[in-house]
Amino acid sequence: MDAATLETALTVTATVCLSLAIGGGSFVALREANARSKREERLSGQSGPAMKSPESKGKTADQAMKRIKQLGERMALQDPAQLSVLRTKLMHAGYFNKEAVVIYLGARAVCLGLAVVMGILLVPVAMSGKAGFGVVMAVGAVAIAGMMGPDKFLEGKKRKLQLEYNEGFPDLLDLLVASVEAGLSLDAAVSRVGDELVRRYPNLAEQVNVLTLELRAGRGRKDCWQAFADRLGTDESRQLATMLRQAEEMGTSLGETLSIFSDDMRVKRMLKAEEKAMALPAKLMVPLILFIFPCLMGVLILPAAFRVSQSMIGGGG
């Protein structure tokens, strides 16, 4: 038996074994799910097959979400030390539900499982040598997507919210200063600012409304502003919470304190804009060299080259 025949036999054997393993695992999982559903129906008092209804798809989605939550709870029990860090990360991405951590852990485990299954299915094809390098790239892409996809999704959501928070925070601060200087209390000014920001910055307005509800519920002002800063996760919100806490402890005027803080934020915003403007020439250097400079050289050199070629042809004739 030559080496090629032996390699083909090993590939076929490995493929058959993997297929049997996946099929057996799927059969066991489906049988366990079927037995569990029948047990739940029996405990709930239903007998016989259930009648199909228009809500069957919704029930199927609820059952899938329930399975994901159960898987996430098992993952959370394995590593409870990271729950607070993960909860903060989800909160910065805009997920404030108390079950968000469990759902995220379950979804990440499902993504990893799908990546493993796809990798197992594609590895024998890649080993056969008939599919080429594309299958190997597909296996790597599936593995990377399964491992890094959920985290990248959260980072994208966080960047989007952080951009809105950073753009809307100076407006929030200006409206807050104007409301306080007009005679409103700080709590009433926060409520009014939340109503004004809802059309342009809906996510920031939602956080301000949550702050208003916490203040109305009787929670301490320092704790409310600190929780507001933790939900936003920006440096400006943390500085504002610290400034308000110090102003309340020292008994200084809130209007004057907010005005000074607003001027400071406006100066910082101008400095950031100037920094971006100063960095623009360096960022434009690569596009200029790659795209504009060749076109410019072609426009300048081609007419001269054409005239030289015509003069040489004429002189030779």
Fold blueprint:
Layout: H1 3-44, H2 56-78, H3 83-92, H4 100-128, H5 133-181, H6 186-197, H7 202-216, H8 221-232, H9 235-250, H10 254-316
Task: Describe the structure in your own words.
- It is a single chain.
- The protein is mostly helical.
- Among the domains are: 31 residues; 109 residues.
- It is 85% helix and 0% strand.
- The protein has ten helices and no strands.
- The longest helix is centred in the C-terminal third of the chain and has 63 residues.
- The radius of gyration is 31 Å and the shape is flat.
- The protein starts with a helix and ends with a helix.
Short summary of the structure?
Helix content is 85%, strand content 0%. With 317 residues, it is mostly helical.
The ordered H/E elements are HHHHHHHHHH
Q: Globular, elongated, flat, extended or rod-shaped: what is the shape?
A: flat
Mean pLDDT: 75
Helicity, as a percent range: over 70%
Q: Number of helical segments?
A: 10
Residue windows where pLDDT falls under 50 for at least 5 positions: 45-54
How many E-type strands?
A: 0
Task: Note the gap between the termini.
Answer: 73 Å
How would you sum up the major sheet? none
Q: Estimate the strand proportion.
A: under 5%
Gyration radius from CA atoms, angstroms = 31 Å
Class by SSE composition = mainly alpha
Keywords, separated by commas or semicolons:
317 residues, mainly alpha, flat
